[in-house]
Amino acid sequence: MKNYFIRVSLYAAFLFLITNCASKKNTVITTVKTDIPLKDTVVYKPKAVSEKKTFFKDSDKENVWVDSIYNKMSAREKIGQLFMISAYSNRDSVHTKEVSALIQDYKVGGLIFFQGGPVRQAKLTNLYQSKSKVPLFIAIDGEWGLGMRLDSTYIYPWNMTLGAIQDLSLIENVGRNMANENKRIGIHFNFAPVLDINTNPKNPIIGNRSFGEDKVNVSNRAIALMKGVQGQGVFCTGKHFPGHGDTSVDSHKALPLIDFSKERLELVELYPYKKTFDEGLVSVMVAHLNIPSLEPQANIPSSASYNIVTNLLQKELGFNGLIFTDGLAMKGATNFKGPGDLEIAVLLAGNDIFLGPDNVPEAFQKLEEAYAQGIITEERLAHSVKKILHYKFKAGLNKYKPIDMNNINGDLNPAQNDALHYKLYENAITVLKNEKEILPIKNLDQKIAYVKLGDDVNSTFVTTLKKYTEITEISNTNIDSLNQELKNYDTVIIGFHKLNKTWEKQNFTDTELLWLQEIAKHNKVILDIFTKPYSLLPITNFDDIEGLVVSYQNSAISQVVSAEILFGAVDAKGKLPVSINDSFKVNDGLSTEKINRLGFTTPENVGMNSAVLSKIDAIAQKAIDGKMTPGMQVLAARKGKVFFQKSYGYQTYDNQKKVSNSDLYDVASISKMISTLPNVMQLYDKNKVTLDTKLKDMVPFFAHTNKENIIFKDLLTHYAGLQAWIPFYKATLDSDGKPSPKYYRKTADSKFSTKVADSLFIRNDYHDTIMKIIAKSPVAVKKEYKYSDFTFIILKEYLEKKTHKKLEDLSKENFFSTLGMNNTLYNPLNKFDKNSIAPTEIDTYFRHQLIQGYVHDMAAAMEGGVAGHAGIFSNAMDVAKMMQLFLQKGNYGGKHYFSEQTFNAFNTCYYKDKGIQRGLGFDKRISKGGPTCGCVSEASFGHTGFTGNIAWVDPETEIVYVFLSNRTYPEVVNDENKLSKGKIREDIQKIIQEAVIK
Predict the structure, then answer these.
(1) What span, in angstroms and rounded, lies between the C-alpha atoms of 905 and 901?
(2) Strand pairing class (744-745; 665-666)
(3) Which of 125, 265, 405, 902 has the fewest CB atoms found within 10 Å of its own CB?
(4) C-beta atoms surrounding 415 within 10 Å
(5) Helices (H), 290-355
(6) 871: phi > 0 → left, psi -120 to 50 → alpha, else beta; which?
(7) How far apart (Å, rounded) are the C-alpha atoms in residues 289 and 308?
(8) How far apart are CA 594 and CA 596, in angstroms?
(9) Of 640, 644, 596, 586, whose CA–CA distance to 616 is shortest?
(10) Whose CA is closest to 909, among 718, 757, 748?
(11) What is the model's pLDDT at position 228?
(12) CB under 8 Å to 700, separation ≥6 — which residues?
């Protein structure tokens, strides 16, 4: 090897003399860097050769194969192995023929694919491989996955984002996924990781491609990524040697000057290379840089420098893997020499593979001439070509097989990718300021505004914020007017959203900086930037910003996770990978508290199978096609994370208004469980009532009636012998079946102000009549289970008399406001537009109108829309919050609502020995005849609703299931509950249970 280096150095000197006159005038951008006194004292001492790791062991078989192939090669075939040419799968047949011709005529050794699509690329790879005598290397520049180049493939977060992550196993998983995707379409090299240390914020070409500005952080993350990739048999290429991080010039356009001392380069830029070499990095890409301290000859790019490629990289650093040039069509290279002369120069400098040469035929001709003249010796050629063949053997190309074309898109986009993506952002997003613990936002009973800055999408962020509490979007073209509006709010969230592309500028405009300053000056502000951290550089003073969050990228998943962090469903863990002036340093990052609010993730992250869950779609469609319901919302959560939330169909069968996740449904009897019951539980928790308290003591109105001695426990388990229900409305109709003027008015007045429906008001004292009818109703002689609405009608009376507050106010104050259930309420038309509420029926027997935004239940309607047994409108997300509160036994969002003992008392079957599967207010029927699939545990509980709903929790699997629909639309037909008979709710629940990964 020593003799090899001596000979090559002599030839390199000779080449420089004979070709120097052919060198082009090189454009060098002079960005003079003087070494600052080095504060960095972390020195890495490379390991001994025997201690270096290797992913790809040598073998005797490999040596035999390499020699057998090499010995049969002509000089032309050997030279061809040095070329890796550019290929595209989004171009026409002319390009395909050109590439094919280069493979056949010039025997090129490899291809680097750029833009296109995975299936097209796989087809072309098979085609091109079929035309090559020696199988081709296939490479891609996929620093953040195939999606960097190919459509229909996955895009992982940028390295700068990964640089904020402290759990390196996650980054290794990214590498593992990338490698598997590469292998699936026949790729052997991924030109990653980027080892550049981005110490220059103005770097126009590296930036987000770097893991950060700290050499140790960059090294550790690069090694993690490399381990993931190479552990799966795909080769990594570290770049851009010896370090492109501290430049302000793009080497695609000119030759950047790196004017640092060798001491500085050894200490900083070369640090990641030394570490990754010891950990088994297979290959390196050499950049086109002008580095006087390493190459004294003026204007020679590093890629063509023997001092850099051979003396430094191979001799001093001991690297013996494959060496690629950076793209030879880049101006940093082509301005040095033309085709052929450039390739000769970089080969003699010590490179093995010419990446993306500008003109293969011309370069090839000059290389042949140089070989014939002895400028390129057989020994030099053999050194690189045999090295290439060794790695082709390691890549399995000695037993080449064409790519299987079946299900490529599916294989490249498994559900596990999104699962990992969520974890990455949960670990990356960084909180830099948290004054007075503004984060997480605990108090949901406050007014919160959102102001958007930037020009990219923000819908996922805002939608997710609104899943936690009421958020008002405020915009104005005038800053003074905007601040005037914001005076009405307690907290202002400012989201800064810029296009999620690596090389796009992500800067605040001057106007946005002014607005940010003015808003922060007059309001309590949380600033959340969905951009690279460098966007914060123009902000010189952060004093007026209470909360500062860096979310790094404006992707859908980053927006979801960032909202989770703001509201405490996820705790912040990220650390800043770069410094921001003197305000924030590398590794700054505050931890925030995680509070037990529902979050969001993929099924796989909570042990669920996406493929199984996809069967829900067909069941939902079956219900719609069978006219069982025009539409529905389905939600499932596990372990505190919503993993499935989807809406199906339309509000009505005329297909005019699609159901959205935010639409409201009349939840019917689920009102009992999510409104009346938790209020009762709080009174029980305060010892205001016991299991044996008699009804006459709870509601004195029932003293001296046949119900006075009913005890609390029997009342709530439907074991009190009460009548199931009474159609109170029938007594208020005239002979034509229309609302009688005796009881109703079309316009409200002082005696008729209780609204039943549009232009229909019942007399205010009719509530007393209903209570008297209930009091006089019979009680069963034989004590047995009978479900009755009277229980919760009575409990409303109890609550209101005991607390001196109306039920709607109690529920809002005690639960809905603090839980963030801002879409849950009685009489929703007081707050929401009718179009956002699914209608329940075209009433032809009582109110004689479309029932939309008014409660379907007739008795509840006669109570003005607020009853203990019905009246609540909500959506699946809000219902899930209350169910999660129950699952967590009285605690949610860090707030204590009632004790675990109280919940356990209400979730107990007291009369199980009598065949009654009911808790106190909770339905627990899981066997035949119950509302569930029969596949949930005995500890499970929930409730159903007449309009086509179910909300159910299984503590054993920690699953919350909510199904809301308007199956009663357009009419209720006796004994024709198609939704129930079709077991739609049960079958969906069954799919959810089957999706649990055992």
Answers:
(1) 6
(2) unpaired
(3) 405
(4) 16
(5) 306, 331-334, 341-349
(6) left
(7) 10
(8) 7
(9) 644
(10) 718
(11) 98
(12) none
Under a CB-based contact definition with an 8 Å cutoff, are residues 629 and 947 in contact?
no
CA angle 184, 188, 194 (to 5 degrees): 110
Query: Can you tell me the distance from the alpha carbon of 861 to that of 882, in angstroms, rounded to the nearest whole number?
Result: 24
- Give residue 17's pLDDT: 44
What pLDDT was estimated at residue 19? Answer: 41
Query: CA-to-CA distance for 746 and 744, rounded, in angstroms?
Result: 7
Q: Of the candidates 576, 503, 574, which has an alpha carbon nearest to the alpha carbon of residue 533?
A: 576
Task: Of 823, 556, 850, give the one whose Cα is nearest residue 664.
Answer: 823
Q: What is the pLDDT of residue 929?
A: 76
**Nearest to residue 670, comparing CAs of 369, 943, 967, 297?**
943
pLDDT of residue 39: 66
Contact 308, 349 (CB under 8 A): yes
CA-to-CA dists, residue 934 to 417, 911, 924, 942, 990, angstroms: 33, 20, 11, 13, 8
DSSP E strands: which ranges in 758-904?
760-762, 825-826, 841-842, 850-851, 872-874, 891-892, 895-896
Residues in the chain: 998
How far, in Å, CA of 24 to CA of 21, rounded?
8
Show the 3-state SS of 781-808: CCCCCCCCCHHHHHHHHHHHHHHCCCHH
pLDDT in tens, 807-838: 999 999 999 999 999 999 999 999 999 999 99
Structure tokens at 545: 């910003």
- Provide the residue type at 345 as one letter: A
Report the C-alpha gap between 623 and 951 in whole angstroms: 18
What angle, rounded to 10 degrees, do the helices at 360-372 and 341-349 form?
60
Contacts of 607 (CB under 8 A, 6+ apart): 638, 639, 996, 997
Order of all β-strands in the sheet with 872-874: 665-666, 872-874, 825-826
Determine phi and psi for 570, rounding to 5 degrees.
-130, 140
Q: What are the two backbone dihedrals, phi and then psi, of residue 444, each rounded to the nearest 5 degrees?
A: -90, -5
Q: How far apart are CA 879 and CA 675, in angstroms?
A: 10
Beta bridge partners of 633: 647, 964
What is the residue type of 597? R
Q: How far is CA 528 from CA 446, 449, 759, in A?
A: 19, 13, 47
Q: Name the β-bridge partners of 452.
A: 495
Integer Cα distance of 312 and 333 in angstroms: 20
Instruction: Find the farthest-apart pair of alpha carbons in the chain and give their distance in angstroms, rounded.
Output: 120
Q: Report the b/e string of 823-835 with b at 16+ CB within 10 A.
A: bbbbbbeeebeee
Mean pLDDT by 10 residues, the chain (998 residues): 50 45 44 51 89 95 98 98 98 98 98 98 98 98 97 97 98 98 98 96 89 97 98 98 87 89 96 98 97 95 98 97 97 96 98 98 98 98 98 98 98 97 98 98 97 97 98 97 97 97 89 97 98 96 98 98 98 98 97 98 98 98 98 98 98 97 98 98 98 98 98 97 97 98 98 98 98 97 94 98 98 98 98 98 98 98 98 98 98 98 98 95 88 95 98 98 98 89 97 97
Angle of CA points 802, 806, 807, to nearest 5°: 90
Report the distance separating Cα 505 and Cα 673, nearest Å. 52
Instruction: Give the amino acid at 601.
Output: T
Cβ contact 958:946 at 8 Å: no
CA dihedral 786, 787, 792, 793 (to 10 degrees): -80
Amino acid, single-letter form, for residue 970:
P
Token pair, residue 410, equals: 């599916």
Amino acid in position 655: N
State the residue for tokens 């040039």. 325
Burial of 335 (0-12, 13-18, 19+ CB in 10 A): buried
φ/ψ of 819, rounded to 5, equals -85, -10
Is the separation of the CB atoms in 225 and 193 below 8 Å? yes
pLDDT of residue 721: 96
Tokens of 935: 């596949």
